[in-house]
Amino acid sequence: MADATMRAAIVYDFDGTLAAGDCAQHGLLPELGVSDIASFWSQVKEETKDRDGDEILTYLGCLALQARAARKQAELTPQRLRIHGKAIPLFPGVESWFDRINQHAAEQGISLEHYIVSSGIEEMIQGTTISKHFKRVFGCRYHYDKKTGNAKWPAVAINYTTKTQYIFRINKGVLNSYDNSKVNEFVEPSQREVPFTNMIYLGDGDTDIPCMRLVKDQGGCSIAVFDVGKWEESRTLDKIGKLIAEDRVNFVVPGNYEERSQLDVTVKGVLRRFARQACRNVNAVQHQDTAGVQEES
To answer: What does the alpha-carbon distance between residue 6 and residue 266 come to, in Å, rounded to a whole number?
Structure first.
């Protein structure tokens, strides 16, 4: 068994990884008068291209404008966003997943932590029933008016490349969004809070590729999750095939977190591998120490 103080982490994307669809389409956008979700996203992409801007910042801006046009700015207060988060449908088995996987990790001598790094809205994710299981949720956020609580402008926008910044924050134990100096300080890999070799990344799509590749290349494990209900769609098949062909991930599994599912068995197997590797490293150090004593004597 590995040293009981060994730390490992599972880092999750949210939309399409733990839950179906996008955060805002469940509760929030309908409340703001948006009935055609696909049309809303097409508008975001068009405006992003026209302005040569960032898609996530454009999305957050479009949400705020839509709330203003509908005279429902109060829907973008932290309290209302958390309420809308309760409407997000989670994949099968997600609600019981954390206790089960934590127990399995403990049996391997691993202290397991869970993190979210998502382009979804942070307060909506915090409103879900599973938010209590995460050590930190990193998502998009607004600055809020101190008097009304209404959204004023974006405070944090996490896109496909800035996601990797948060992987390094978890790796180094810098669990905030503002401290750039500390996250950029050099820290010996052996001294980092959660080594990449003890990290699993779960994501579902193109926006997760930089994180998938980072964790995989640094010796951790990257797992692509797909929505079973969308398996027959050509876009899903192309996406999964591309991730495998380009060597972006270690495994591809359906988004089913139930016990004995492919995802469940895969993650448990990876955690056992982490524990085995930790034992191997400890034995190697002990062997070196013993050899050193023998040489001195």
So the answer is: 20
User: Helix/strand/coil (H, E, C) string of 113-141?
Assistant: EEEEEEEEEHHHHHCCCCHHHCCEEEEEE
Length of the chain: 297
Residue 207 pLDDT = 84
Sheet order of strands, 251-254 included: 151-156, 136-144, 110-121, 6-12, 199-203, 221-226, 251-254
- Amino acid letter for position 164: T
Q: From CA 114, how far away is CA 202, in angstroms rounded?
A: 11
Instruction: Compute the distance between CA of residue 295 and CA of residue 117 in angstroms, rounded to an integer.
Output: 49
- Residue 206 tokens read as 């193109």
- Taking the whole predicted model, whether its pTM rises above 0.90 is answered as yes
| Residue 257 near residue 263, CB atoms below 8 Å | yes
110 phi/psi in degrees, rounded to 5:
-115, 135
Low-confidence ranges of the chain (pLDDT < 70): 1-4, 281-297
Torsion of CA 22, 27, 28, 32, to 10 degrees: 130
CA-CA distance, 252 to 244, in Å (whole number)? 8
Q: What is the DSSP letter of 109?
A: T
DSSP 160-182: TTTHHHHHHHHHHT--SSS-HHH
